[in-house]
Amino acid sequence: MMARTSLFLAMAGALVLCGCIKGPNYSRPKVDVPDAYHGPDNAAPAAAAESLGNAKWWTVFEDRELQKLIRVALEQNFDVRIAATRVLQARESVAIARSNQYPTLAGGVLVTGQRTPGSGGAATYNIPELGVSGSWDIDFWGKYRRLTEAARAELMATEWGRRAVVESLVSGVASAYFDLRELDLELEISRRTLASREDSLQLTRTLVDGGAAPLSDQRQAEQLVETAAAAIPDLERAIAQQENAINILLGRNPGVAIARGLSLSDQPIPQVPPAGIPSALLARRPDIGQAEQNLIAANARIGVARAAFFPDISLTGIGGIASGSLTTLFQGASRAWNYTASAMEPIFTKGRLDANLRLVEAQHEEALLQYQQAIQQSFRDVSDALIAYQKLHEFRAHREKLLDAARDASQLSRVRYQGGATSYLEVLTNETNYFSAELGAAGAILRERLSLVQLYSALGGGWDQ
Q1: Which of 23, 293, 298, 465 could form a disulfide with 156 if both were Cys (CB 3.0 to 4.6 A apart)?
Q2: Which pLDDT band, with edges at 50, 70 and 90, does 184 fall under?
C-alpha cells in the first residue's frame, strides 16, 4: 500500500509541477509622475531626496503635551485598534487560502454492531474499523495559488489601510490640539479685552456722573463690555466640546481635562518645509499603497476565473483496517484501501464562467483606475498643501500688521476721547476693530499651523510609529 501511495503522490506532484498558472502576472502600471510638485509659483522648491513626509511625527510636532496625546491615541484609539484586528483577520485569510494547495487527511474509528437471526439462534457481530481518508484537489492550473496571491495582496492592502488610519489619527489629534489652543487664545483675548473695557466703562460712568460726558457714551461703553462678555461663555462651551472631541480620539470618555503645552504662536513651524521627490510619494502614501495592493488582488482573481474553464483534477483515497473481531483487527488480511483520480471538465454553465471572467476583468479595470486616481489625487493634495502653507504664512503676516494698526488706532482714539477731541463713537469703532483684529490674528496663526498638518499628511507622513 505504501509503495502505491508514494507512486500516487509522486505522479500528482509531477502534474502540479507541469501545470501552468493561468492569468496575467502583475506588473506595476506606468504612471505620469511630475518632476516637481506644482506650488504657489507654478513649481515647488527644487526636488530633493529629503521630505517632510519622511520625518517622524514627534520631530514635526515638538510640543511635548501634544506628543503625549498622540501616543495615547495610537495606543487606545478605537479606529486604530479596529484596523489592527482587520490585519489579523487578513493574515488568517491568507493561511486559509494557502491551505487549499495541500492535501487534506482525516482519520476515524468506526464500530458497527449487527445482529442477525438464524436457525441455530441469533448471531451478533461487532466490526471495528480504523481508517484514514485523504483528498487533494490538485492546483494544476494555479487556481489556489492565484487565490493565495490575492489573499496576500488583500493582507497588504489591510496593512496599508491600518497605516492610513494611523496617519489620519496623528493628523487629527494635532489639528484638534491646535484648534483647542486657538480657542484658548481667543478666550485669553476676550477676558483681557473684557477687563480693559470694564475699566473704560467705569471711567466713562465717572465722566457721565460728573456731567463731562453724555449718557450715550456710557451706553456705547456698555456695548463694548457686553460684546466681550458674550464671547467668553461661547468660547468656554467650544473649549469644553473640543476637549471632548480630543478625548474621543484618545479612546477615552469625555470629561477628562486636556493638558496644554506651548501656546499656539509658540508652536514651532519650519519656514520652507522640504517636499521631496514626487516619485517617492508613491511608496509613502498609505492610500496609494492600499490601491496598488487592491489592484494586485484584482489581477490575481483573473487567473482564478480563467482556471475555472479547465478540468478540476482531484485525487481521493481511503485506507484502513477492519475485522469482525478485535483479535484479528491488525492482521494483514484486515487491511483495505482504494483511491480515485478524477478530472471534471465544465461542459455547460449557461455562460456563468464567461460572465465571471468579464466581471473580474471589469473589477481589475476599476482597481487600475482607482490606483491611477489615488496617485493623481496625491499630487493635487501636496500641491494644494504647498500653496496653502506659503499663502497662509503671508496671510498671517498681514493679519499681524493689521493687528498692530488696529491696536494703535484704539490707543489713539482713547487719548483723543480723553482729551475731548472726539466722541466716544470713534472709541467704539476702533475698539471693535481691535477686538476683531486680535481674533483674526489668532485664526490666522491657527490656519498656518493647520497647513503644516495638511502638508505633512499630504506627503504621507505620520503613520510610522
Answers
A1: 293
A2: very high
Distance CA 250, CA 241 (A): 14
CB 258 within 8 A of CB 247: yes
Number of compact structural domains in the chain: 1
DSSP of 167-193: HHHHHHHHHHHHHHHHHHHHHHHHHHH
319 located within any domain = no
In a domain, 14, yes or no: no
Q: Which residue has the higher pLDDT, 168 or 350?
A: 168
Phi, psi of 280 (to 5 degrees): -70, -20
Count the neighbouring beta carbons within 10 Å of the beta carbon of residue 214: 13
Strand blocks (E) in 309-393: 312-322, 335-344
Compute CA distances 78 → 178, 179, 258, whole Å.
22, 22, 19
C-alpha cell at 395: 496671510
In tens, the pLDDT along 299-333 reads 999 999 999 888 888 888 776 665 555 555 555 55
Lookup: cell for 335 = 487491511
Q: What is the pLDDT of residues 350-392, one digit of tens each?
A: 889 999 999 999 999 999 999 999 999 999 999 999 999 999 9
Please name which of 10, 234, 41, 45 lies closest in space to residue 136, comparing C-alpha atoms: 10
For residue 106, which phi and psi values (nearest 5 degrees)? Answer: -145, 140
For cell 482504494, name the residue: 338
Rounded Cα–Cα distance for residues 20 and 233 (Å): 73
Q: Which domain holds residue 403?
A: 21-102+141-309+352-458
HSE-CB of 154 using CA atoms within 13 angstroms: 20
Q: Tell me the per-residue pLDDT of 422-465, one tens digit each, with 9 for 90 and over.
A: 888 999 999 999 999 999 999 999 999 999 999 999 999 988 76
Angle at CA 41, nearest 5°, toward 37 and 45?
45
Is 346 part of a structural domain of the chain? Answer: no
Report d(CA 375, CA 28) in Å as an integer.
Answer: 13
Question: How many residues would you count in the chain?
Answer: 465
This prediction's pTM: 0.85
Q: At what angle do helices 424-458 and 352-418 cross, to 10 degrees?
A: 150
In angstroms, the CA 426 to CA 422 distance is 7
pLDDT tens digits for 15-45? Answer: 444 457 888 999 999 988 998 888 776 555 5
The domain spanning residue 251 has which CATH number?
Answer: 1.20.1600.10
Sequence-ordered list of residues with C-beta below 8 angstroms from that of 352, at least 6 positions apart, any chain: none
